[in-house]
Amino acid sequence: MIKIYCQQLALLILLSYVHLAISIQARSDREQQVTPAIGNNARVAAGDNTNYRVWGPKVLCSMLPDDFLECNKPIDHKDNKTAKEEKGYGCLKFGGLNYEDVEHTKVQCTVFNDIDCHGPRTFHRDGVPCIRYSEHYFLTTLLYSLLLGFLGMDRFCLGQTGTAVGKLLTLGGVGVWWIVDIILLITNRLTPEDDSNWNPYV
Ligand SMILES: *[C@@H]1O[C@H](CO)[C@@H](O)[C@H](O)[C@H]1NC(C)=O
């Protein structure tokens, strides 16, 4: 007799568990429906970003990754400080081996036409390194330096024509300059004349 009641009691407890679970679920569903209403009211306060819904489907143009943008090259002020101050941004010098040595600047970027986004489509992006690449490759130059250093070919190729002629006429400083330049090259003190960095794309 107690056994039968026990089963019924167990069933009753089980049912009330299910009931409890369902009502908790329903309640959290209701709360979730309420949450987006708060989200809709959240606006980005600054400037032209009013009416921008943070949880909306459109991303701010200025937050798009670089792949969606056409950015200008950093402006070269050629060490003219007044020109840089007038413009507000740009590079005084190009190049540098370590991050700390490289100047960084803003550049103007425009979103590609087919990309849909919110806000101004042309803006400035900061933190662009003042670096440029021309057709100077470290390994190729090192080869020239090792094999043709006595003809000054390494310096010719780097655009340092003056010293290259001197190196050629002295046949690599009778061998000494030849070796010195290899060391300078490896320690990165002999670099392209046009302040470009070594081209990383081999
Ligand atoms: C530097 O830039 C300013 C403004 O562009 C220009 O007026 C000036 O002539 C420049 N100075 C030199 C030395 O090039």
TrEMBL record:
Extent of the signal sequence: 1-23
Membrane topology, record value: Multi-pass membrane protein
Location within or outside the cell: Membrane
Domain (TM2): residue spans on this chain: 135-183
Bilayer-crossing regions: 137-156, 168-187
Keywords, sorted A to Z: Glycoprotein, Membrane, Signal, Transmembrane, Transmembrane helix
Pfam families: TM2
GO cellular component, as recorded: membrane
Entry similarity comment: Belongs to the TM2 family.
Protein name: TM2 domain-containing protein CG11103
Phylogenetic lineage: Eukaryota, Metazoa, Ecdysozoa, Arthropoda, Hexapoda
